[in-house]
Structure formats: C-alpha cells, structure tokens
C-alpha cells in the first residue's frame, strides 16, 4: 500500500495514472503492448509490430518473467525510450538514445511494483489520465 501511495504521488504531478495489467506472469509484455497501443498508434506501424511479435514469439514458450534484461532488449528491438516508475526504488530510464526531446510523450512508460501482487513483482502501463483504459489480456 505504501508503495502504491508513493508511486501515485510521483505520477500525479505528471498527469499520469497506472493502467492496471492482468497479473498473469506476462505483465511486462502486456504492459509494453498497452503502451504501443496508447502511443498514437505506434502498434499500427508494421515494422514495430513485426519486431514486437517476433520478440514475443521467442519468449512465449517460456515461463520466465520479464525484467531489466528483457526491457533492455525491448528498448533496442522497438527503438523506443522506456521509463519505469517505482514507489519502492529509483525510477529507471532505458534507451535514452531513442528519447525524443524532453517530453515523455512518445516514451513507453511502465510502473514496477515489488510488493503489490501475490505473484510477486509486477509491471503496469502508465498512461495520461485521459487515456486510461481497461486491463489488457
């Protein structure tokens, strides 16, 4: 609960809110998928979609959860800046070379929750308040 309160206080001044993702062991990938859909149709780009689908197919057959290593691979595969907000740890920024300007507008934004769910670590999608939607998956 403390973790979520800290995270909400961090996101509120940025007019951002957490978009809950189903905690099914594939939350990192579902959160990235949600971000690609939210970011002005990035998911409609056939090149980005092909790269993402290819990467997902490679990890689909494993039960391993995604983490920092997979995020590093995704940032380069998608050529996207990724920002991970956390209420328990310092925020993490990956793929700074793909960041466009000072705005986070085209960045993939995720939240990391160490203690929020019974399955353990969890990722959600972070979206502008007006783009909040239902869970993916």
What does this structure look like?
- With 137 residues, this protein is α+β, with helices and mostly antiparallel strands.
- It has one domain: Cathepsin B, Chain A.
- 35% of the residues lie in helices and 23% in strands.
- A 5-stranded mixed beta sheet has the order 1-5-4-2-3, with helices on both faces.
- The longest helix has 15 residues.
- It is globular.
- The relative contact order is 0.26.
Quick structural overview:
The protein is an alpha+beta fold and 137 residues long. It is built from 4 helices and 5 strands; from the N terminus they run H-E-H-H-H-E-E-E-E.
Structural class by SSE content: alpha+beta
**Beginning-to-end CA distance, first to last residue:** 24 Å
- Principal-axis shape equals globular
Number of helices: 4
In helices, the fraction of residues equals: 25-40%
What composes the largest sheet? Answer: 5 strands, mixed
| CATH topology-level name | Cathepsin B, Chain A
In the CATH hierarchy, the architecture is Alpha-Beta Complex
Q: How many E-type strands?
A: 5
What would you report as the Rg, rounded to the nearest angstrom?
A: 14 Å
Could you give the order of strands across the largest sheet? 1-5-4-2-3
- The level 1 CATH classification is Alpha Beta
Give the helices and strands as they follow along the chain.
Answer: HEHHHEEEE
* Integer count of domains: 1
Uncertain stretches: none
SS strand fraction: 15-25%
Average residue pLDDT? 82
């Amino acid at each position: 609960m403390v973790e979520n309160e800290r995270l909400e206080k961090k996101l509120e001044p940025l007019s951002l809110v957490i978009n809950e993702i189903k905690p099914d062991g594939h939350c990192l990938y579902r959160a990235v998928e949600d971000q690609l859909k939210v970011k002005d149709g990035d998911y409609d780009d056939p090149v980005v979609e092909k790269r993402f689908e290819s990467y997902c197919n490679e990890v689909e057959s494993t039960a391993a959860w995604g983490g920092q290593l997979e995020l590093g691979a995704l940032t380069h595969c998608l050529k996207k800046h990724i920002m991970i907000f956390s209420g328990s740890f310092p925020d993490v920024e990956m793929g700074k070379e793909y960041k466009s300007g000072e705005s986070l507008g085209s960045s993939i934004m995720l939240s990391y929750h160490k203690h929020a769910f019974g399955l353990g670590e969890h990722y959600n999608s972070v979206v502008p308040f007006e783009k909040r939607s239902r869970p993916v998956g």
